[in-house]
Amino acid sequence: MASSSNPRADYIEIFNRGDSPIWLDGIRIAYTGTTGRTELFGLGSGGRALGAGEYHVVTKDAAAVMELYSVGTPSWLGEEPSMPNLAATGAVAIVDADSSTLDEVHYSDSWHNPLLLSHKDVALERIDPYGESDDASNWTSAQTESGNATPTSKNSSARTGGADKDGPKLKLRSKYFCPRGGTSAPDVMEVEMRECGGGVTMTIYDAEGRPVARPYNNVAAGNGLMTLTWDGRDADGVIVGGRTYIVVVETWDTGGRSWTRKETVTVVE
């Protein structure tokens, strides 16, 4: 988190992807910002051992982090008063007690999802913990649905095994819905989407192929779960008539790949 609205809430999160605990007291962070000067500071861990699959967050002010973001495990927040404010672009290295570099990333503000209008209070997340640290395609913005940050918890955009060549996973929760309510059918249409990692546009067409509504147009999307909805209203805000409609979901990732998915949904009256 290098773009917090409160600079004291900037943070760096580390994750133990191994099978054995790591003693954090011997670990330091080497940070290089826009000045080019490297600063070394601890993790404020208080003698903690980082277990396999666990997270640890170092920040200047733990209370400021908890005020701005949802913290899954507050005891995994470590305060380090000497930690500098983080620049939007910089370098972070994890350094062992013998001064060897365990991991390093030269991050950039340009690694955020390009569809976001602002990066304020949005964490930059590593997608695959087993992927390359300095690979820009292995980083993206935290999802809006997760509060734009997940300190001490799994990254909202996390996945392993690299990019999915088949594109995002989509699931239409119900083949019919009733926007006027009063029936056992759902009031809105819902489409579950996972592993997008870029942007999404969703357009509704009638059976003759005429566009009816566009609930989502070039909206940023992460790799976690995102629910796309349509309330059954057309572009003028009028509830459409009862019939079958075509739902076209167009997605793309930051690597330039794109996919189109089609579903049909029936509006009942």
Description:
The protein is mostly beta strands. It folds into two domains: 7-146, Immunoglobulin-like; 169-267, Immunoglobulin-like, CATH 2.60.40.4070. 3% of the residues lie in helices and 37% in strands. The protein is built from one helix and 19 strands. It has a five-stranded mixed beta sheet, with no helix packed on it. Strands 4-3-8-9 form a four-stranded antiparallel beta sheet, with no helix packed on it. It has a three-stranded mixed beta sheet with strand order 1-6-7, with no helix packed on it. Strand 6, helix 1 and strand 7 (77-79) form a beta-alpha-beta unit. The radius of gyration is 22 Å and the shape is elongated. The model has no long low-confidence stretch (mean pLDDT 91).
Order of helices and strands: EEEEEEHEEEEEEEEEEEEE
Query: How does the major sheet shape up?
Result: 5 strands, mixed
Q: Strand order of the main beta sheet, please?
A: 13-19-18-15-16
Distance between the termini: 48 Å
Radius of gyration: 22 Å
Class of secondary structure makeup: mainly beta
Shape: elongated
Give the overall average pLDDT.
91
What fold name goes in the CATH topology slot of the largest domain? Immunoglobulin-like
What count of domains describes the coordinates? 2
CATH architecture of the largest domain: Sandwich
**Count of separate DSSP helical elements:** 1
- Low-confidence segments, given as residue ranges, are none
Strand content: 35-45%
CATH C-level class of the largest domain is Mainly Beta
Fraction in helix: under 10%
The fourth-level CATH homologous superfamily of the largest domain is: Lamin Tail domain
Number of strands: 19
